[in-house]
Amino acid sequence: METRMKKLALAVLLVVFGISNVYAQEAALKKETIEIGIFSDAIEGDLVPFIGYFVSDNLELALHFNFVHAEIDLPGVADDIEQDSFIVSFDVLSNLPTGTRFVPVVGAGVNFSRDEIEDETTETVGFDLTAGVRYFIAERGAVTLFGQYEFADIDFSDDIGTITADGTAYAVGLLYSIFFQ
């Protein structure tokens, strides 16, 4: 818990210092704007790099990646199985300006993961749905409360046969962002 708080504090400080000299929401959501951010996952405590590019006003292509360690409880298997995953996600996000400092965000995407489960390695394609609300603390700086639902089936085989595990995951947290043009 203490490590999570240190990571969160570091992320907040980096963003606050980075955006302290900038200030304009309308310009931040325009075509050719680049968003650089750090997503702090409230469930796992991870810090996830986030990069976005606005292909048109309010429409953003986003890239984020993460490393996850998990224990999977499979039906009919006595022990949990350990899994390490490297995940790369590509999302399309639609920002819905309200004329205020609050901007709802919705999106969907595809994610690719390389999973090491016990001694097996698999590669999986999954999908995610995203919803959140940005709060612009400055013209080019925002904090976004995000929720994300990710789903995929993970197949892995051994000498006995193939097992499919449910790869459903949830992420809730804050994205601290700076916008550049």
Tell me which CATH architecture applies here: Beta Barrel
Estimate the global geometry from the Cα principal axes.
elongated
H and E string = HHEEEEEEEEEE
Reported by name, the CATH topology is Porin
Count of DSSP-assigned helices: 2
Share in β-strands: over 45%
Overall number of strands: 10
N-to-C CA distance: 37 Å
Give the C-alpha Rg: 18 Å
CATH class annotation: Mainly Beta
How are the strands of the biggest sheet laid out side by side?
1-2-3-4-5-6-7-10
Mean of all residue-level pLDDT scores: 81
Helix content: 10-25%
Count of discrete domains: 1
pLDDT < 50 runs, ≥5 residues: 19-24
Query: Mind summarizing the main beta sheet?
Result: 8 strands, antiparallel, barrel
Instruction: Please identify the structural class as seen in this structure.
Output: mainly beta
Fold and architecture overview:
- The protein has 181 residues and is mainly beta.
- The protein has a single domain, classed as Porin, CATH 2.40.160.20.
- The chain contains 2 helices and 10 strands; from the N terminus they run H-H-E-E-E-E-E-E-E-E-E-E.
- It has helices at residues 2-19, 25-28, and strands at 34-41, 47-56, 59-72, 81-95, 102-117, 120-138, 141-151, 153-157, 162-166, 169-180.
- An 8-stranded antiparallel β-barrel has the order 1-2-3-4-5-6-7-10. A two-stranded antiparallel sheet has the order 8-9.
- The protein is elongated and about 60 Å long.
- Residues 19-24 have low confidence and may be disordered.
